[in-house]
Amino acid sequence: MMHSDNWALKAKQLGYRSRAVFKLEEILKKTRTKRFKNVLDLGASPGAWSQFIVKKNSNANVYALDILDMEPIEGVSFFKKNIEQINNIPQILKLKGDFNLVISDIAPNLSGIKSVDNENIFDLNKLTVNIALNFLCKGGTLIMKTFQNSFLKTLRKDMELSFKIVQTYKPVASKKQSGEIYLYGVK
Ligand SMILES: C[S@@+](CC[C@H](N)C(=O)[O-])C[C@H]1O[C@@H](n2cnc3c(N)ncnc32)[C@H](O)[C@@H]1O
User: Fold this and answer.
1) Which atom of ligand 1 is nearest to the CA of 20?
2) How many domains does the chain have?
3) Lowest mean pLDDT among 84-93, 158-167, 173-182
4) For the whole model, what pTM was predicted?
5) In a domain, 186, yes or no
6) Which residues line ligand 1 at a C-beta cut-off of 6 Å?
7) Closest residue by CA, ligand 1 atom 14
8) Which of 28, 101, 166, 175 is the most buried (most CB within 10 A)?
9) Residue 76 covered by a domain
10) CA 43–ligand 1 middle distance (angstroms)
11) CA 81 to centroid of chain Cα atoms
12) pLDDT digits (tens, 9 = 90+) for 11-70
């Protein structure tokens, strides 16, 4: 098992902005996800996931959103917006139903009060699932970060109602103690 600092070093050596890239890489590989034409990256900053997608497919159209700034990446259209505002972005709206892949690595700011934080995560995850359902094409893929808490079962059950396939992944590059886990769904 690689130490977390080694993942960070490896990311840097490969020119990626964060070690998060290895989590996406592993999930895409395990799920044999290969369609990267129109991709929506939610909570994209600093940008390693977007970098990875354009590296895999230089023809990909990547649309990235974050409440924080992101340094430009060639081939990536970035919008400094909360995902709640997605319906106010005409460039993205025009591709509604045409996205092959929606990826979300969103982690909300934590208040430190567990019940409040868990509920915030749950709300953001439900919004993300809705966005995916609206923006993905039939057969399109959602990969979404969530956390192992009391809402996880409900979230997964909700996804099972509207996605053909639902799976859970804990990538090796994900810190064990972080409690983060990724949900994968095919619409
Ligand atoms: C773990 S980072 C993403 C790392 C990214 N996948 C990468 O590879 O570089 C999570 C991001 O989610 C963003 N975020 C949190 N809440 C958000 C929201 N409501 N709308 C958009 N972005 C959000 C944060 O600002 C943060 O930059």
Assistant:
1) 8
2) 1
3) 173-182
4) 0.96
5) no
6) 17-18, 20-21, 43-49, 65-68, 82-83, 105-108, 124
7) 43
8) 101
9) yes
10) 3
11) 15
12) 999 999 999 999 999 999 999 999 899 999 999 999 999 999 999 999 999 999 999 999
